[in-house]
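Structure first, sequence second, as always.
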């Protein structure tokens, strides 16, 4: 098969998967209004990402844009305003091929209650995350202050990742969370697992404070 045909086929396949992921996350209440952003990396290194202002629960191919590893595109549409955060993840984790950024209620509220990090420990559902085979596990999800200077925020996250063990996601205070995976399917599994765990932590905080 001609390379161009393979490229077109991969583009359409990844676009369809991202649109479906957007619908799934929206149905779970994790992508209200025009919040969040989604992306997938193609075999040639280009990245398919949602355009700025698009409704992720009603995505179609026209609301996705191809960018290079520097965030540049020949398209007149503007990619997500948080493109720098996607690029940072792809640079830091060469095996990652999908990045999802939901805005769930539980993650947003939890990020306001935790200062620097959220520790998830002894949950059975931790086994849905990579490298974990027992509930007797502990992971740290960092919580970064929100920053309208996205390039600066990406630099802060990169510096944290350089100094800590690999993680599968992070919170942004009063904002939402980022997670990723080797495929869109895997990233979705991580998003669902983290959302459940964030809800558990939030409920536990409510019960102990009450």
């Amino acid at each position: 098969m001609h390379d161009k045909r393979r490229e077109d086929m991969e583009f359409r396949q990844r676009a369809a998967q991202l649109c479906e992921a957007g619908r799934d996350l929206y149905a779970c209440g994790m992508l209200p209004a025009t919040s969040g952003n989604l992306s997938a990396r193609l075999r040639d290194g280009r990245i398919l990402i949602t355009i700025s202002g698009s409704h992720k629960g009603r995505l179609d191919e026209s609301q996705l844009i191809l960018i290079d590893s520097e965030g540049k595109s020949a398209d007149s549409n503007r990619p997500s305003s948080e493109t720098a955060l996607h690029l940072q993840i792809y640079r830091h984790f060469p095996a990652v091929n999908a990045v999802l950024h939901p805005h769930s209620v539980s993650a947003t509220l939890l990020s306001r209650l935790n200062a620097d990090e959220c520790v998830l420990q002894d949950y059975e559902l931790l086994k849905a995350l990579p490298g974990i085979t027992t509930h007797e596990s502990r992971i740290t999800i960092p919580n970064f202050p929100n920053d309208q200077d996205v390039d600066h925020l990406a630099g802060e996250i990169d510096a944290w990742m350089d100094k800590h063990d690999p993680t599968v996601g992070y919170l942004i205070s009063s904002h939402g969370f980022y997670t990723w995976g080797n495929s869109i399917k895997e990233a979705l599994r991580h998003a669902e697992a983290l959302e459940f765990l964030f809800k558990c932590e939030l409920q536990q905080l409510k019960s102990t404070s009450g």
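Margin note: The first strand starts at residue 37 and ends at 41.
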